[in-house]
Amino acid sequence: QVQLVESGGGLVQPGGSLRLSCAASGFSLEYYAIAWFRQAPEKEREGVSCIGARDGYTDGSTDYTDSVKGRFTLFRDNEKNTVYLQMNSLKPEDTAVYYCATDPQWRLCSGTSYRRPYDYWGQGTQVTVSS
Q: Which of 42, 72, 115, 128 lies in disulfide reach of 68, CB 3.0 to 4.6 Å?
């Protein structure tokens, strides 16, 4: 059974950092693209970042939406079957529920990755940036 579990959210002051985790079970996430989304109250869900498969055929390249470039870093630990979203220089506008998602048909990431359907989603983790 494919399962994604996010953790690491919390309350942080502007300029602070958080590291979100997306732990996978039921499949090896190194073979699939993993995308992060966020949804703030009364706003549409938006794509944040994506990391492609890294399995000898693809290089695990990453994509970031413009608003987080230079502040967020997405990376995976295959031994722990976990993807991490390191978030630095957090701003109040980063406040949202963050979700990771995957789908067996997606292995690469690009700017269009956030418009495609994903079959598997985590439950979300709340990130609040406030003083």
A: 72
Answer whether 35's CB lies under 8 Å from 108's CB.
Answer: no
Residue-wise pLDDT for 22-70, tens only, equals 999 999 999 999 999 999 999 999 999 999 998 777 778 999 999 999 9
* d(C-alpha 36, C-alpha 47), whole Å: 6
